[in-house]
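The records we work with from here on pair a chain with its fold. These numbers are not coordinates but entries in a learned vocabulary of local backbone shapes. To see the layout at work, look at the sequence and tokens printed below:
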Amino acid sequence: MTTEGSDPRQTRAAHERWERDHLAPYACRAAAGRGRRHPEPAHDYRADYPRDRDRILHCKAFRRLEYKTQVFVNGTADHYRTRLTHTMEMAAVGRTLARALRANEDLTEAIALAHDIGHSPFGHAGEEALDELMKPHGGFDHNLQSCRAVEWLETPYPDFPGLNLTWEVRAGLRKRQAAIPGATLDGAPLGPFQFLEAQMADACDDLTYHAHDVDDGLEAGLVTDEKLGELEIWRLARERVARRHPRADRDRLLPTAVRQLLDLQVEDVINHSAAQLARFRPQSPADVMNAPERIVDFSPAMRRLVEPLHAFLFREVYFSPVVADANRESVRLMRALFLHYVAHPETMGRKARARMEEEGLWRTACDYVAGMTDRYALEETARFNIGQETP
């Protein structure tokens, strides 16, 4: 409630004061961040991390996630997850973790929303194919490609390349590089561990896909309640459902069990992370990064439950003929398309061709193909009448 004569507007300065007064000492605060590579005037109403989130949401690469494969090739059915819905679910869980541990929700969400923005078409099979093609030219990694997307390939602003995101969001996308001793970004250390919000984004990536890939596997008929019953973590989820919803019919029981599968993991990460915070008592983001152990993670007991689930998903879903065969054919066509662009660079788009002198032919072709949706990649192979034989 505002008092008479007071200004009801929530300004950036007021948001920064709220962060200072309410977030834990180990949380990242926008006012204390390392800022942007290219200086910009502060916004009157938005702090830096919400502003980063909005830049990600509005960029073209984010919109294309709607038509990129998560597990099932995009367009197979209406209800399977896409790279976009996976990202949205991950961001929602990330906010829950951050709120529970008094970390920065806006920063956690921004990292989560951008984490797959550079992912190739056709899921991890597509990523592996691009990495193989690019081995002599520096390889391909979707985490680094996400960095390229936000720092270079997206060009919506007149004064600088990329989205000009804050150091913290860009650092949060470099989870693999943070593990390299001495790794830095703009002269500042990335590790040994990432700051708390980046650790949260990394953890919620795993625990959300554990749940939603089970859900999609059930929808596709690749897994069954009986098969899942071999896993202790699924039995624990089912037992929760039985206790809380003893009269649930089968059609509602399985989706409820999937939600409990997610809740079990989220609760465990929150409780284990809280114990780690109490144990190490970090007083700054730097303390988190230099802690003796990673803070945000599964407990050892939960990891013992999750590892068999992870192996089960690979065996029953990712490597199942239904998924593997569709991905294999799509990736074959994507490889042929990539090699077509290398042989005929004039057929790439105008903006891609403009980068060739600086980036080189192979990296330009990689950026061009990696940015495609599944649908557009297949349309391009049909347009050029390529991919009829294995290259």
